[in-house]
Input
Amino acid sequence: MEAQARTRRLTAVRREEERVTTLELFFDLVFVLALTQCTALMAETPTWEGLLQALFVLVVLWWSWGGYAWLTSVVDPEEGAVRIAMFAAMAAFLVAALAVPHAFGDDALVFACAYGLVRLAHIWLFTIASRDDPGLRRSVTGLAGSTATGVTLLAAASFTDGVAQGSLWAAAIALDVGIPFLFFAEGWKLMPSHFAERYGLIVIIALGESIVAIGVGANEIVDGGVIAASVLGVALAAAFWWLYFDVIAWLGQKRLSQATPGREQNELARDSYSIIHFPLVAGIVLAAFGLKKTIEHVGDPLDSVPAAALVGGVAVYLLGHVAFRWRQVHSLSRQRLLAALASLLLYPVALAVPAIATLALVLAVLCLLIVYEVTRFAESRARVRNELAHGQLPAAMAAARIQE
Output
């Protein structure tokens, strides 16, 4: 019995419950810092180049976090060796997050090495979990190859700068994200409700970053302008929350649960969550950067980059919703597509009016969208929520297609 217990501690235990564990939530807290640091990178380098660099870093961190969402949907993170490895990965993730503001400068090699350790722990745990599963082992082998390629390119990029550095980062992202599409999608395993919940919680974490941006951007003196902008900022975060969690999150979770386990379910999870959820999180982070600059200078027009981040972040978030809906139920949300276009059209206005006015305008776009959807689709929305709550997915999906 003692030998069996020792073997159990040194192996990965397959997950049996759908609920998200406290250790997973603890792990996700490190991602809060990562998001905050990406916003800080944008704020410290408020140029188009700085914006692109921050998005590159965000992609890399997002992909590594997503890998652990897949991992903990297979193994129990609180059993065996996984618990210790998760703590080690958290430490490495924290170091990578600390290096974000200078990931293209003096801390480039630190970032690459810390990121490499995060990915190494991930591959090691997946390798343990796949010992008795040849299909999963083939998929992990393909992922290991793409991971090694990506980490190597990031390490090489740390010794360069300018266009060469940016090109190496772009290549690392393209290969690290793209190669897994070619390797045995049917080999992965996941628990759909748990998997969807993890991504829903990371949206909450990203929204928390937008709230943090309000505090970071506030002046020492909290005057009327700061108070008004802060209230509008919270309302913007609330609108983001409403658009995702009112119906979309429910529908996504149920749709993933209904998919046939294997290739169909894995490809749906990969496309809808690992890929399409990135624009949702990136849109929130961009908007948080614009919000931070708004709080700092409520009465002045935004500069070109923060203005683009604010209106573009809202548009990217909405376009992510359009893509998510299309991948889930093959239905086009025309109203959200039009709202994204309306937000983009506010860019020239944002360069001419006070920042607080721009914030009010983008919030108005989202509020009008919410009011339209709630009133125009009141009956079908209520039916979707009721049917999803009772597990009647086919009827709920049919009702959701009405909302176009």
